[in-house]
Amino acid sequence: MAPKGFHSLERMEMHHESLWNEAVAFTRAKSPASFEQWFSGVQYDGMTDGVVCLRARDEFVREWVDQHFLPTLVDYLRSQTGWSVQIAWSVGGELERPVASSLGEAVASGMRVRNFVANGTHAVRTDDAVSALAPVEDESPVSRRAVTAKVTPPPLEGLNPKYTFANFVVGPSNQLAHAAAIGAAGGGGPRHNPLFLCGGTGLGKTHLVHAVAHRIRAERPQSRILYVSAEKFVNEFVQSLQENRMSEFRSRYRERCDLLLVDDIQFLASKTQTQEEFFHAFNALHLADKQIIVTSDKYPQQLERMEERLVSRFSWGLVADIQGPELETRVAILRKKAQMEQIELADEVVLYLAQTIRSNVRELEGTLIRLAAKSSLLGRLIDLDFARQELAATTSPRPNEAGVDDIQRVVCHHFKLRTSDLLSKDRHKSIAFARHVAMYLCKQRLKCSFPELGRAFGNRDHTTVMSAVRKVEHLRTTDPEVRAHLEAIERKLGTD
Ligand code: ADP
Ligand code: MG
Fold first, then answer.
1. Does any ligand 1 atom lie closer than 6 A to the CB of residue 230?
2. Residues with CB under 5 A from ligand 2 (ion)
3. pLDDT, tens digit, 9 for 90 and up, residues 281-335
4. For the whole prediction, is pTM greater than 0.85?
5. Helix H or strand E segment including 43
């Protein structure tokens, strides 16, 4: 559920401060001897949306603390919040409020070591080498200017030059997304704003977004393009906040930008302050008719812990999804990649790979690269035998491969049905769903044809099986609940 409103900033900061203090106390308890010396050279500047801002007296302190104390500290914060915690360092300048005094006393107030430290339930890394170290010289140079390496990258940093439209294979599963991306790049057809691209992992979302950037850059070099992952957006926002550079940040995202591309927006879940900031950037750009493209692994309505008003804006333009590619598309993608990488592949090998690896394009591509590497290492052509051997060796072994009966049994057990239900004519919703799931899993895992499966499921027509398989394939990428069911059943069946 999306939070109702944004929390009061002040309250959140108080909460973060005490959380930070706990983490410090926890870390100190783990490594008492040298903690004070090192942390007298570190200042805590706040924490926002899982990004902790720290300032180190110098590079030496930063590196040492980073390597020897932060794993413990970050683990603690993560275990208490469930966030993906990140550290944003700045180095140099005066430390007004160091975390510890060099005399060995805690400076920050309210530090308490809770009992979980004493009873040691947390498995946290400590480093013995730390306690053996001599104290840091207090007279280290402090005149250095703050260094913030991670912010304000050049505009097109992080774009993969291979992710172009020319290298993208279009098929029924990604046709809409592709056409919409072309439109957004000004290449004809309607332009939707925003364009929301969604789909499972490894299906080409990032590829399409990069392709838009390449195209616009080539055709309108003066266009100001901003491409960021949502994760990077969070980092930049938090650092700007901490370093009082918010007006710069805002002008960058709200004014000095003609095309905003944000990848993996689902990463903003729970990050309420960043969401608010993004909301304003979105509004400013949208009002000025600047193109916005957002990618996500879920449909807007399925995004969790995302502000309602953001979710609704995501659907203002066009929501285009990408499905898992069909066999023909997988074949075409393999051919294209092989050609790009100058890998020689016989048709039968292409077909075999495309039939065997169905889940996502990244995996397909990974397998191809691996095969090519191995073949050049062994000086062997990639023929069908070789491909078979390799795939058998790298996909986990299946000691007692499940058959149709086994799959039906496991599915029934999972949904608390009888096997006879699956084979019956009963079209009750829950039974039909279980039946479809079982058909899908059989098709995925066994080398049965559709007619064979139809017979194995109470003499049904092969078209029934086909449409069931398609339906579940679709639901798998769009419905988290279905995906969870499938994953649970697949765990029981063993890895495929
Ligand atoms: P996502 O962002 O959806 O997780 P990516 O865009 O990173 O997926 O795609 C994963 C890999 O698969 C990339 O190397 C990409 O080039 C490739 N890929 C995905 N779809 C296609 C396609 N239709 N044509 C060519 N390559 C594709
Ligand atoms: Mg991606």
1. no
2. 205-206
3. 999 999 999 999 999 999 998 898 999 999 999 999 999 999 989 999 999 999 9
4. no
5. strand 42-48
